[in-house]
Design a protein that fits this description.
The complex is a heterodimer of chains A (113) and B (116). With 113 residues, chain A is mainly beta. Helices cover 0% and strands 50% of the residues of chain A. In chain B, the strands form 3 sheets. In chain B, strands 2, 5, 6, 10, 11 and 12 form a 6-stranded mixed β-sheet that branches. Chain B has a 4-stranded antiparallel β-sheet with strand order 3-9-8-7, with no helix packed on it. Classes of the chains: A mainly beta (113), B mainly beta (116). Chains A and B meet through strand 5 and strand 10 of A and strand 5, strand 6, strand 10 and strand 11 of B.
């Protein structure tokens, strides 16, 4: 009954460091998403994937890369972290298209100093 | 283009009194609309969703929302607030991208405080 699991939950990075956030879902969903949440701005879509081996840009893709090598995993990478990337990151997944519920992970708190 | 506006950034109610969180949407398609709740340091949990069936949608924890096309609104209500309802609430419209994905457009959130 895990749903969507994100690791790590908390991380502090220095400017210029790289890191990868891992998202795993056990619901056999085709669609997976990475969002960032900033105060007063709701959630904004970074990248998404419509199936294994595919990725696409969302609203705010700059500074991030993603990979979907396995259907159940969706990785978000920061190659050279910047303070502007301090945020809470949420992974999500859904079965198919419009009208289907999107399930969220519990979030990853990232601070870049 | 789809968009969603949450009319109040903060709402404060007393325990036991009604809750009203307001949301207006704009959509060129028949929208799917959702309310999500986020408790402090937690992920987002689906409260309820509207997908063109009944206009009055019942969700978890006693919440409900009514889809009013003429007013382009999807307000969230609860008859009697409980302390555990204190959280941030997001109104969301689903944008079907013509075969790509169901991108969610989030409102900026309403922080609900419940006073004892």
């Amino acid at each position: 009954n895990a749903g969507v699991t994100q690791t790590p939950k908390f991380r502090v990075l220095k400017t210029g460091q790289s890191m990868t956030l891992l998202c795993a879902q056990d619901m056999n969903h085709e669609y997976m998403y990475w969002y960032r949440q900033d105060p007063g701005m709701g959630l904004r879509l970074i990248h998404y994937s419509v199936g294994e081996g595919t990725t696409a840009k969302g609203e705010v893709p700059d500074g991030y890369n993603v990979s979907r090598l396995k259907k159940q995993n969706f990785l978000l990478g920061l190659e050279s972290a910047a303070p502007s990337q301090t945020s809470v990151y949420f992974c999500a997944s859904s079965y198919s298209l419009s009208g289907n519920t999107i399930y969220f992970g519990e979030g990853s708190w990232l601070t870049v100093v | 283009a789809q968009s969603v506006t949450q009319l109040d950034s903060h709402v404060s109610v007393s325990e036991g009194t009604p809750v009203l969180l307001r949301c207006n949407y704009s959509s060129s398609y028949s929208p799917s609309l959702f309310w999500y709740v986020q408790h402090p340091n937690k992920g987002l949990q689906l409260l309820l969703k509207y997908t063109s069936a009944a206009t009055l949608v019942k969700g978890i924890n006693g919440f409900e929302a009514e889809f009013k096309k003429s007013e382009t609104s999807f307000h969230l209500t609860k008859p009697s607030a409980h302390m555990s309802d204190a959280a941030e609430y997001f109104c969301v419209v689903s944008r079907f991208d013509g075969g790509a994905t169901n991108k969610l457009i989030f409102g900026t959130g309403t922080l609900l405080a419940v006073q004892p």
